[in-house]
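2024-03-11 09:14:02 INFO queue: dequeued item HipA-like kinase domain-containing protein, len=139
2024-03-11 09:14:02 INFO validating residues
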Amino acid sequence: MPISSRRDVLAFDWWIRNGDRTLSDAGGNPNLFWDVKTDQLVVLDHNQAFDIHFSAQHFAALHVFKRECPSLFEDWVTQEHYATRYLDAMANWDGICNTIPDEWWYLDDERTLPTDFDPNTLRQQLLNCRGDLFWNMKS
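2024-03-11 09:14:37 INFO prediction written
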């Protein structure tokens, strides 16, 4: 698999704070498949995204593509590349949020228990991708 694909997954998971794509000698949960028909990586399962308890240390130690960390976290040109891609994706944030099905805003089928998802807080979190603090694995 190309380094660019591995780095893309690593960088995206870092951006959305998805610490659930793990793999170690003891096993893990990479949530990745290889599509033999298209000869491409299939990335799935982002249900742990935007984790308020996200741990940079855990991420760096267990992410399936942790070997790509130096090429991402020690290279400001690469960081700028991803920040630009992320900001481009954020240009349609309101449109994206408007496509969320109504039932996703609730924890129950009766739609009486709203989620604690705050699109404005999340938007601000995602826009922080340009700052040095964002790319600091020790924070």
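2024-03-11 09:14:37 INFO annotate: Strands lie at 22-24, 27-29, 32-35, 40-43.
2024-03-11 09:14:38 INFO item closed
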